[in-house]
Amino acid sequence: MNPRDLAFLALASATVLSAPAFADDLASAKAGMRERVPAIDKLKLAGSVGEDNRGYLAVRSPSDEAAAVVAAENADRRIVFSDTAARTGATADAVGRAFARQIAAASAPGVWLQRADGQWYRK
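Request: output the structure for the sequence above.
Response:
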């Protein structure tokens, strides 16, 4: 077997073996996002966090609670955006920006949001 075939076989094996792990990561990410909704809603209504224009949470008023929730949520959103991008042929950035528009439209009054130009406003 030539080196190129060997490299391809190694890559294919790694992809097949990592697929179940990624599926577990995706399921875990989605579950984490569902579980965090009440905490995120509380932080949003308090003005401690907002939704940026790339689909991620941003800390507006620093606190340990806000930082921890934002870090966990954004890590899970990265996984979900990457999966959606891989399935649709879009980029993860485009998926995130589309998610940001959906979140902005559905957000409650008083929630901090970021416009496409980077300006923050309260809905």
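The longest helix spans residues 3-45.
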